[in-house]
Design a protein that fits this description.
heterodimer; A: alpha+beta; Cytochrome-c3 Hydrogenase, chain B; B: alpha+beta; Beta Polymerase, domain 2; 2 domains; five-stranded mixed sheet; two-stranded antiparallel sheet
């Protein structure tokens, strides 16, 4: 729907037009509405309107027990549900000073890294559609489907895993699963090699993405942007390195960065991160057989003792590195079996808040791929 | 000496209380001192504002949690009437977060800021406790210091009814503009439904189920 508005002051003969992109629009990756003021094809102003998926998850969290909030976290960032589980459980464990057995940590790392690869693949697939590359979509979804099958065997569900428990994870995996995961790592390596051949040197892809949607490090920090969006500006910051959790400090991996801060840099960062994640998965597979302890801490135990578990009174903020950046959880406990307050620090929320500034002055088709390159998930923004 | 200690030393006159919250230092200030504290923290090197949020504390909840929040203290009774009971203690109300429990009418709203320094790897939590009545519930904005605070403050305004003075665009972010009440407040009636209908091309809110959807 478009309507004509008053002429702009700078260009008296031109007329400005308001264009609504969304809420139902494939390029918005969910239900996001962008109100754009256009001068021809150039964006004069863009205002994102959010809240279409607001379900009040944080308020719902106050109405159930601690364990009952875990399924709600799945439905926030539904493409990286394992990381949402992890952020909440991590904050609770921090508040309770609860130790996690090494075996549970290996399983947590496996689940998180497989989920990270799946999440980056779905980003790459849908981003391909944004710039008109259909093939990447099919290739990425093929490899992602294999990752989902592994996660399904591990956790019992394809998307909403609810795999984390206080002091560990829900179940252990078996030797067959480890074998299949190793095979999957090889398959994905081949898959991303194909993608690399298809995109990285592709003239059209490079022309569209290089120099588009440039974010400086100062801008990224000012808006609280984290994850690959921050690392693509040249800032090597990864919570797995800086504030290790789940024994990430014992794994050998690099933090890929690019300096340009444009759409291509964000693509390159995510591509390199998939490679690093696959390396971590291989290391975790090697450790699995000899990892000590149980998949759950004996301090808490299984079943109904999980249901009754609650941290002592106090306030704690735990944060982890999800595929989209810093995912944190603030838990306030009054000592009862229900959280007094849970706040999820949504990574996409901060990442998206910069879009007005990034889109201003850009061409409309560039703004669409800039938006796509931020890798937002609306379920996470609206909560 | 950590970065947080530097900040706490510099803004000493605005510090109502300092504490350690799990692994990070906590600084409680008042709305008047908040801007100085945040500007000082940013200058000192806390460049990343992780989030802004609020925690609602109606008076009955504060009374239930008074001990760990610091609003009451266990003291030994100085002259026990009963000679045998020498270790007797009594619960005494004390000032905490700048408030004395007797001065609190409806309750308090805890506004929380979490700061992080990329260079030093330090955290600092900043808290402001203001009255929770909607007309008095306001703190100054920090959206001019961190552009990212803009949306976080709008979220807190929408869900908790905290007004951020000086904010360039203080309007709801998730809920429709004319929604009644702030849904994350503890006393918000979750049973009462509100419906949306369209009039003159604008979404409006009604409580009449027959009129909206």
């Amino acid at each position: 729907m478009a309507e004509q508005q008053t002429p702009s002051e700078q260009t008296p003969k031109r007329r400005l037009m308001t264009l609504n992109v969304g809420p139902q629009h494939p390029a918005t990756h969910g239900v996001l509405r962008m109100k754009m003021l256009l001068d021809g094809e150039r964006i004069v102003d863009a205002e994102p309107i959010i809240g279409y998926l607001h379900r009040g998850s944080e308020r719902l969290g106050e109405m159930g027990t601690y364990l009952q909030f875990i399924p709600y976290t799945d439905r926030m960032d539904y493409l990286a549900a394992i990381h949402n589980n992890m952020a909440f459980v991590h904050a609770c464990e921090k508040l309770a000073d609860l130790d996690v057995p090494p075996r549970a940590n290996v399983l947590r790392v496996l689940a998180q890294e497989i989920n990270r690869v799946a999440s980056h693949l779905i980003w790459m697939g849908t981003f391909g559609i944004d710039i008109g590359a259909m093939t990447t979509f099919f290739w990425c979804f093929r490899d992602r489907e294999r990752a989902l099958r592994l996660l399904e065997r591990m956790t019992g569900t394809r998307l909403t895993y609810s795999y984390m428990r206080f002091g560990g994870v829900k179940h252990d995996v078996d030797e067959d699963w480890i074998q299949d995961t190793r095979e999957w790592v090889d398959q994905v390596r081949e898959g991303i090699q194909e993608l690399d051949d298809l995109l990285t040197e592709n003239d059209i892809f490079v022309a569209r993405t290089k120099g588009t949607g440039v974010v400086s490090t100062e801008q990224a920090i000012d808006y609280g942007m984290t994850g690959p969006n921050l690392r693509a500006t040249g800032k090597a910051f990864d919570l797995r390195k800086e504030e290790p959790y789940a024994s990430y400090e014992t794994y050998d991996f690099d933090v890929p960065t690019s300096d340009e801060g444009d759409v291509f840099a964000r693509y390159a960062c995510r591509m390199a991160e998939i490679e690093e994640s696959l390396g971590i998965v291989e290391q975790a597979c090697d450790r699995w057989a000899d990892a000590e302890g149980n998949h759950l801490s004996r301090e808490v135990g299984e079943g109904s003792s999980q249901f009754r578990w609650s941290p002592p009174e106090g306030e704690a903020y735990g944060r982890i590195e999800s595929p989209r950046g810093e995912l944190g959880c603030l838990v306030v406990s009054d000592g009862s079996n229900q959280p007094y307050r849970v706040k999820m620090r949504a990574h996409s929320f901060s990442n998206l808040s910069a879009i007005s500034e990034l889109a201003r002055g850009e061409l409309i088709q560039d703004a669409i791929i800039t938006l796509g390159s931020l890798d937002i998930v609306l379920g996470d923004i609206d909560r | 000496m950590s970065l947080a200690d530097d900040v706490i030393d510099t803004v000493q006159e605005h510090v109502i209380e300092e504490d350690v919250q799990k692994d990070k230092p906590l600084l409680v200030t008042d709305p008047e001192g908040l801007r100085d504290v945040m500007a000082e923290a940013q200058d000192a090197g806390f460049d990343h504002l992780c989030f802004v949020t609020a925690v609602d504390w109606p008076k009955d909840e504060i009374e239930d949690n008074a001990a760990w929040l610091g609003f009451t203290e266990e003291r030994e009774v100085e002259d026990p009437d009963d000679e045998e009971d020498e270790d007797a203690t009594e619960t005494v109300p004390v000032e905490s977060k700048g408030w004395h429990l007797d001065d609190v009418d409806d309750g308090l709203m805890e506004v929380v800021y979490n700061l992080y320094s990329y260079d030093e790897g330090d955290h600092l939590a900043v808290q402001v406790w203001v009255p929770r009545e909607v007309d008095q519930c306001s703190v100054p904005t920090v959206s001019d210091l961190w552009a990212g605070a803009n949306w976080h403050e709008r979220e807190v305004f929408d869900l908790y009814g905290v007004t951020f003075e000086g904010h360039p665009d203080m309007k709801r972010i998730f809920m429709p503009e004319d929604w009644e009440g702030h849904p994350h407040r503890k006393d918000y009636d979750l049973g009462e439904q509100q419906y949306i209908y369209r009039e003159d091309g604008i979404d409006k809110v009604t409580k009449d189920a027959g009129k909206g959807w």
